[in-house]
């Protein structure tokens, strides 16, 4: 598994499993157990997902095969606990539900409420070893700049929506220039805009014998983004891992970035044809 080094020297897998919207406890546990067996080591959950207990059950069931030190478990603080005391309670509750002594990464899930008070609690928990790295989610560059300036510890990660239709070029550039790891939630655009049958991704994928989904993940990997695609199907879980044996050419990277869609934009046939022209190169 390819990894990235966070700004506090902690090593994080660059590809993992997200379990947002996996509501059924039995399905959640089975999905995580299958993922761990296939080789996943980064598991991303949150208090707001209401499945930390099921994730914890999967971790416990897999403990004999996957040592704790190989895992990278992320959870997040939801808005109802966005205070100093609430963050302390939120971390304690997540640890209990997950059955862990420490978290590898803990994020402020949304920039809502007393994020400064919550962050102070996370800094203290980080310093005593209950969390190996702390970060944020859904913070804009402007908000993050102020947040970083007025806190002792810089966030290690900012988890934001990044996908082929929402490349977030400027925010990703800002994060990387400032030593904060970008992490993509919703890397498949939550299935919108027919990503899995997209003509550009399909054409590029044919050159490498890869699916549109694999191309979409690889595009993020090559940009240095951590990716946590969700799937509950074993075949797709396996396919999502098979993105480290090929490399997209610069023309491919440009063509995929050109898929960016302004809000409410409907792509025309002429748009697709223009983008496909970018991908023409020697095989």
- Helix/strand class: alpha/beta
> Can you list the strand order of the major beta sheet?
3-4-5-6-7-8-9-10
What is the total number of structural domains?
1
CATH superfamily: NADP-dependent oxidoreductase domain
* Rg over CA atoms: 19 Å
Low-confidence stretches: 264-269
Indicate the CATH architecture: Alpha-Beta Barrel
- Fraction of residues in β-strands: 5-15%
Overall residue-averaged pLDDT value: 92
Distance between the termini: 27 Å
The CATH topology: TIM Barrel
- In N-to-C order, the SSE pattern is EEEHEHEHEHEHEHEHHEHHH
CATH first level: which class? Alpha Beta
Q: Could you list some keywords that capture this structure?
A:
single chain, eight-stranded parallel beta sheet, TIM Barrel, 283 residues
Please describe what this structure looks like.
With 283 residues, the chain is α/β, with parallel strands linked by helices. The protein has eleven helices and ten strands. Strands 3-4-5-6-7-8-9-10 form an eight-stranded parallel sheet. Strands 1-2 form a two-stranded antiparallel ribbon. Helices cover 41% and strands 13% of the residues. It has one domain: TIM Barrel (Alpha-Beta Barrel).
Task: Map the helices and strands.
Blueprint lengths: L2 E3 L5 E3 L3 E2 L6 H14 L3 E3 L7 H10 L10 E6 L6 H15 L6 E4 L6 H13 L6 E4 L3 H9 L7 E5 L7 H9 L3 E5 L13 H10 L3 H11 L3 E2 L6 H8 L8 H8 L11 H10 L5
Parallel strand pairs: 3-4, 4-5, 5-6, 6-7, 7-8, 8-9, 9-10
Antiparallel strand pairs: 1-2
Helix pairs in contact: 1-2, 1-9, 2-3, 3-4, 7-8, 10-11
């Amino acid at each position: 598994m390819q990894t990235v080094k966070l700004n506090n020297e902690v090593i994080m897998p660059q590809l993992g499993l997200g379990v947002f919207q996996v509501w059924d406890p039995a399905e959640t546990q089975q999905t995580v157990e299958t993922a761990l067996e296939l080789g996943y080591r980064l598991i991303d959950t949150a208090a707001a997902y209401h499945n930390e207990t099921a994730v914890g059950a999967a971790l416990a069931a897999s403990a004999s095969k996957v040592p704790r030190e190989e895992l990278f478990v992320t959870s997040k603080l939801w808005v109802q606990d966005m205070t100093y005391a609430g963050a302390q309670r939120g971390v304690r509750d997540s640890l209990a539900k997950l059955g862990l002594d420490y978290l590898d990464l803990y994020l402020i899930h949304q920039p809502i409420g007393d994020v400064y008070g919550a962050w102070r609690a996370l800094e203290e928990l980080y310093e005593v070893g209950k969390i190996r790295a702390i970060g944020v989610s859904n913070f804009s560059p402007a908000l993050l700049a102020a947040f970083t300036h007025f806190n002792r510890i810089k966030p290690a990660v900012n988890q934001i929506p990044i996908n082929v239709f929402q490349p977030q070029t400027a925010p990703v550039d800002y994060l990387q220039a400032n030593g904060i790891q970008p992490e993509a939630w919703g890397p498949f655009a939550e299935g919108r805009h027919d990503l899995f049958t997209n003509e550009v991704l399909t054409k590029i994928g044919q050159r490498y014998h890869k699916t549109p989904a694999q191309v979409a993940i690889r595009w993020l990997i090559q940009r240095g983004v951590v990716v946590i695609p969700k799937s509950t199907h074993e075949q797709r879980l396996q396919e999502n891992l098979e993105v480290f044996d090929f490399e997209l050419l610069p023309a491919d990277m440009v063509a995929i970035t050109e898929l960016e869609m302004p809000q409410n934009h409907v792509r025309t046939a002429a748009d697709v044809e223009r983008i496909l022209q970018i991908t023409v190169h020697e095989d």
